[in-house]
Design a protein that fits this description.
The chain is built from three helices and five strands. The chain is 27% helix and 23% strand. Strand 2 and strand 3 form a beta hairpin. It has one domain. By secondary structure, it is of the alpha+beta class. It has a five-stranded mixed β-sheet. The radius of gyration is 16 Å and the shape is globular. Keywords: Signal. InterPro entries: NA-bd_OB-fold. This is Lipoprotein.
């Protein structure tokens, strides 16, 4: 029984750690910080917006990106609390954005 509980705990820990990346931070695009400008490419998936901030990123790479590869391919990613249906045309997948 103890082995089963330990296995369950390890599985949950591994799954949780895979979802977050160390260089990820959140910003609300409706109220962006006035102290810094953020520029990157939009990755728009499942009603959540991610901005890829890596300098080497290319638009075609982001347009064809699979969500499972997001954190494997890029070390600096921003998660934006902004929903697709709020009418932001510049938040299409692959677009460059500066906020």
């Amino acid at each position: 029984m103890k082995k089963l509980i330990l296995l369950l705990f390890l599985t949950v820990s591994i799954l949780t750690s895979c979802e977050s990346a160390p260089n990820t931070y959140e910003v609300d695009l409706k109220h962006p910080s006035e102290s810094k400008t953020i520029e990157g490419y939009v990755y728009n998936k499942n009603r959540m917006i991610w901005i890829i901030l890596d300098k080497e990123v290319k638009k075609k790479d982001v347009e064809n990106l699979e969500s499972s590869l997001l954190f494997k391919n890029y070390s600096n990613v921003m998660k934006c609390m902004f929903e697709k249906d709020q009418g932001q045309s510049n938040l299409k997948n692959g677009n460059k954005i500066k906020i």
